[in-house]
Structure formats: structure tokens, C-alpha cells
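Handout, section B. The chain below has 163 residues.
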Amino acid sequence: MFSKTTEYALRAIIYLAKHSDINYKIGIATVASAIDAPKSFTAKILQKLTKDNFPISSIPGPNGGLYMTMEGKNTTVLQVLELLNEDHVINKCVLGLQECNEETPCPMHARYKLIKPLLQDMFITKTLNDLALELDHRIRLNNSILPLKTEKKRNKTPTKPEK
């Protein structure tokens, strides 16, 4: 339904909404690994989202990283789609035709007009925080639900029992 860029952006943003705040910043490598996306592509997407008046904040330096403000977490999915220029997916003809209406419908117009208001309502009312809470550390990838990768745990050497 969306471009790969938008899919990665939504997954990254939801991950940040779920796992970050002003006191806990996350690095790009961690986000990329968690959403199973290329690091350089994730960096490019998140850089755009920190510049375009989107409430993802970035702090440089060794103790820096990315985080979302409460304002950012209350952003709707539609606002994200608009920022990424993907709102046409739910606002225009499903086939991308310029002239698609009741008088000159595309072949999918009659069926799509029944579900279009439901999609619009979902994207208008769902916030990133809603999705983060509902996600519960899981993400849908390739028609299967997989747990989101979390930060790598250090290998702990098992302790030997005391004698």
C-alpha cells in the first residue's frame, strides 16, 4: 500500500514512540536493527523526519540519539503520511487516475469508495502512541508476526555454582 520508505518510516517512528523519551535516546543502528531495515536507509529517513517539523528529536554526541516527545507520540498516522507525501494513497483514486469520480469512475471506484472512509478514519484517529501501545514489541513483516529486535544483550558467562 505504501512505498518502502514510508513502511520503514512508520516502523521506525512506532519503535521510537514505544521505546524512547527525553531521558532515553536510541541510536540509529538500534532502530535499524529493531525494524529490520538497512542502517543507511533508516538514517536517511530519520534525518528527514527530524528536519521537517516532525517531533522526533536528535541529540548528537556519545550520549545522544533519537527520541520522541509526547507531542510526537500524539501525531496521527495521517500527519506522518502527509509529511512523507504518501497521503495520496488514502485521498485519491486507488489506481492513481486524475479523473476518478462518480461520473467517470475507475474500475475499482465502486468497491474502494466503501472502504476508503474506514481507512481515512483509521489514519486520522490513530496516533503513533496508540500504535506503539498496541504493537506490544511486535511488528508485522512479510505476513507473519515477528518480535521486534531489542537492543543486543551482552553474553553473560554462566556463573559457576559455589561449592
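Note. The mean pLDDT is 82. Compare this with the example in section A.
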